[in-house]
Specification:
Distance between the termini: 166 Å
Number of strands: 5
Largest sheet: 5 strands, antiparallel
Structural class: alpha+beta
Shape: rod-shaped
Helix content: 25-40%
Radius of gyration: 47 Å
Mean pLDDT: 79
Number of helices: 5
Oligomer: single chain
Order of helices and strands: HHHEEEHEHE
Strand content: 5-15%
Length: 230
């Protein structure tokens, strides 16, 4: 009697325990096996580096791109991207605050500009200017007027002194007087050489402020019109 052929061999079976977990198709393997690390997003790294280099626009753009890509690709680096954007924002805010402070400081400087020491007469008088009222007080510098208008004084010479140290009141007076005497004939040849005139010259105080100018003014107590050269 013929025996039936044996059944085909079946693949070996593994015991199954209740509650046991099995890897899903395509998984990394059964539990307990080391998992490969997720890659770090390159834009996140770039955002932080660019922020430290103070390239603010590029840092913000790469940080935003990183935050969009990281959840889609399952990557790491969200903290780097956030740090890059935060640092960029802090740098930008600091720049704005410094700019506003500089604007206020500049406005204050315009309200009270610092002027370099200079002679009070440098831009005030030139030979040929006339002065409506002549004041012996050297701190008062009335603006010049046209010589055709009534005036007490006429500037006939302006010259400066040299030296770094104040030479003293007497030396200044002698220098100024001699200079005015020598220059009057050249300005007004027909003028009376004994005519009265006033001299504005540096004082010890104004010398320290940079004043070196001597101003010679023909003076007439009674206002007159016209020039002493006429």
């Amino acid at each position: 009697m013929t025996q039936p052929p044996p059944p085909p061999s079946a693949p070996p079976a593994y015991p199954v325990h209740p509650g046991a977990h099995h890897p899903a198709p395509g998984g990394y393997g059964p539990p307990g096996m080391p998992q490969p690390p997720r890659p770090v997003n390159g834009f996140a790294i770039a955002s932080l580096v660019l922020a430290l280099l103070t390239l603010i626009p590029l840092s913000v753009i790469t940080g935003i791109v990183a935050l969009v890509q990281i959840p889609r690709r399952g990557q790491r680096g969200k903290g780097l991207a956030i740090a890059g954007i935060a640092i960029s924002g802090a740098i930008l805010l600091s720049a704005i605050i410094l700019g506003v402070a500089a604007e206020f400081a500049g406005a204050g400087d315009q309200d009270a500009p610092e002027r370099a020491p200079q002679s009070r007469y440098t831009m005030q008088y030139v030979p040929g200017d006339c002065i409506e009222q002549v004041d012996e007080n050297r701190t008062v510098d009335p603006p010049p007027v046209k010589c055709g208008e009534p005036h007490q004084g006429e500037v006939f010479a302006v010259f400066d002194m040299s030296g770094s140290a104040y030479p003293g009141d007497e030396a200044v007076w002698e220098y100024a007087t001699k200079g005015c005497d020598e220059r009057l004939p050249g300005y007004a040849p027909s003028a009376d050489p004994d005519a009265e005139y006033m001299i504005y010259f540096p004082t010890a105080e104004s010398w320290a402020d940079g004043d070196r100018w001597v101003v010679c003014v023909a003076f007439d107590e009674t206002p007159r019109t016209g020039s002493i050269r006429d």
